[in-house]
Amino acid sequence: MNNSSTIMMLREMHLNGIADAFRDQSIDPSYKNYSFEERLTMLVEAEWDRRNYNKLKRLVQDAHFKFSNAHIAEVDYHQDRKLDRSQILDLASCSYIQENENVIVTGASGSGKTWLACALGLAACKKYFSVRYIRLPELLDDLAVARSENSHHKVISKYAKARLLIVDEWLLTRINEEESKYLFEIVEMRYSKASTILCSQFKTGGWHEKIGQPTLADAILDRIVHNSHKIFIDGKMSMRERKGLKQLSTK
Q1: Cβ-contact 106, 201 below 8 angstroms
Q2: What domains, with CATH codes, occur in the chain?
């Protein structure tokens, strides 16, 4: 059996990492200096790396991040933003996800809440946690369409099952009682089983009045706020303004 046939069979078995590594070993005479066990280890490692890369790629695609290139290493710790570097790095370790805890990110429009949440989400993907990013208005629209098709339970389950759910523009406007009920179902299904990052322009003290029904508001907030890590992004200058100034200064 020649090498071409072997490579073809490896690809038919979806062992593309091994196939590519075996091809490289076949055409590079320097590999003859390695033992059989060493070359086999290299083949297995190549397959392992390929599968992990593909898994990460799928997780990032499925997350639907607004900023898929947001990285924790690029967080701006400018003094007036008052971000705690140790807190951010601790959250990037994803220990809060293992403990089924939440993160609440508040700050003015343009402060960088969404970017930071996406950076934390990407860090979670790198730990091979399933992540889903969604704006609350889009989530509610999704539920409204599903309700008209009598498939809202399926949509609720979709948002409930992500190991990390990032909800942007949280309670930007008031929601009605029916929307509150559906949000409660999602929150209840995730409680003590998964983690959620909420991005809001309003601090938690102002959330209660945004929810259409006091009893539901109590139930939703009780399941979110008390086991959460809180990040407040300060600063009078928005990140859009900072970015614009930085671009001007480099010209």
Answers
A1: yes
A2: 3-60 (no CATH), 64-249 (3.40.50.300)
CB environment 55-83: b (16+ within 10 A), e (fewer):
eeeebbeebebbbeebebeebeeeeebeb
Nearest-CA neighbor of 77 among 46, 106, 108, 116? 116
**H helix or E strand, kind and range, residue 76:** none
Residue whose C-alpha is closest to residue 119's, from 97, 88, 147, 151: 88
Extract the tokens encoding 213.
């029904």
Q: Max Cα separation, the chain?
A: 74
pLDDT, tens digit only, all 251 positions of the chain: 568 888 888 888 888 888 888 888 888 888 888 898 888 888 988 888 888 899 999 999 999 999 999 999 999 998 888 999 999 999 999 999 999 999 999 999 999 999 999 999 999 999 999 999 999 999 999 999 988 888 888 999 999 999 999 999 999 999 999 999 999 999 999 999 999 999 999 999 899 999 978 999 999 999 999 889 999 998 765 655 555 545 444 44
Torsion of CA 223, 229, 232, 233, to 10 degrees: -120
Residue 38: Cβ-neighbour burial (10 angstroms; 0-12, 13-18, 19+): exposed
Q: Check: CB of residue 132 under 8 Å from CB of residue 64.
A: yes
The two tokens of residue 123 are 């860090």
